[in-house]
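A quick aside before the break. I want you to see a complete sequence-to-structure record at least once, exactly as it would be stored in a machine-readable document. Don't worry about memorizing anything.
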Amino acid sequence: MVRIFRHYVSPVKLTLAVMDFMVFLGAVFLAEWLRYSYLDLHLSSNAQSMVAKVLVPVIILPILLGVGGYQSDALRDTRVFFVRLGAAVFGAAIILSAALFMLPTLPLWRSILVLTIVLGASVVFLVHWLMLHFADYRFLGRNVIVLGAGENAQELVDYAARAPEAGLNIVKVVALPGGKNLVEGAVQLGDIPIFDKYAHESQAEMILIAEDLGIELLIEELIACKLSGIEVKDRLSFYEQVRGYVDLSSVKAEWIIFSDGFKGGSGFERLAKRLLDITVSSVLLIAALPIMIFAGIAIKTTSRGSVFYRQERVGRYGKSFKLLKFRSMKEDAEAEGQAEWAQENDPRITLVGTFLRRTRIDELPQVVNVLRGHMSFVGPRPERPFFVDQLQKDVPFYRERHCLKPGITGWAQIQYPYGASFEDSKRKLEYDLYYIKNYSIFLDLLIILQTVRVLLFPIGVR
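That is the input. The structure line, written in tokens, reads:
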């Protein structure tokens, strides 16, 4: 995995993104040459021309990332990628047209822009199709030896098989003494005379410890591997890097205390985050104002009760605040005063409320909470005090998610479907801990971009 500003990125996805950038940049040059040649005009190049050309992939790539063009499902199914590529180029065409209209000094004709998008999108789709059907992702991955052959090891082997874009090439699985042997073809540790020599002969670049039982027999050999340049990782670090979450069953207090992370950001990063919150929330509030007005009218005319719904939520350091949302349930949804998890096909939700929830329009008033400083635009989802009290008793390290301001969107929200149960909260906490540990402005921007995918292709909405 490649680490960029504390966030881990798949080398396969990064390589594809770089290739797509170069394809769209090359498409601009080709489209301009074809257009000028057709009109028999002299092709000139200057600083403004270069800025205009680079602007095209600079705008298209973030949009393609935002709509999920580099998500695992898009890399495994060209039909999914085709839909998301279409959405990306459509959105990019609108933004680029507006940018060129407002900046008429940029020498990029609309005809060249259209030709660029057609050529670039066609070649990008072809590249992804060829990569899916003919490329071997192993040359971008790392050779890995898994220590242990039990359930955890089998899970890792299965994951590597179904997610080749993770770049995990498992070359050997070594069964440890006293442990289970569930992985087919696993090598017994007793059959390996010198483990560090065996690791080098297997061309291993990383040793992944899946089981703790019997690992003390290899301490000296693992030290030798580490000193010779072979990376040694435990299962907790692997899940953090490759799958983007912290495995809660393996987390210990000392790991949080001594790990390289959980710093909460520097003073500059906190200032930058606040400025980002104000900027994004202000732009969203202005842009979505007509939608919010129509939503308010629809709520008021179709059901009894107020337009807005204020609900107590737990914020930073455990302090409560009133969360503002469009009302999507009946006025007396919790008439007995007992908090309830949202259910699938919840009968308490109104007809208009169902639409508001599916489109996430009911969340828009929360930008007011962000501007008032109760929330950040990106952060862990705020929960109700009733559920927080329960979860803090039963879920380890749940309290730690309150070290940052809660957010409208977040790493857990874009990586995991809507969570409305005890088990869902545990799973989402694993993603929240990853975000807290590896927080950076880069990760916030990445989450904001990928929120577009959640809005366009909603999954698990309730």
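Two observations worth writing down. Residues 267-302 form the longest helix (36 residues). The chain has a mean pLDDT of 86. We'll return to this after the break.
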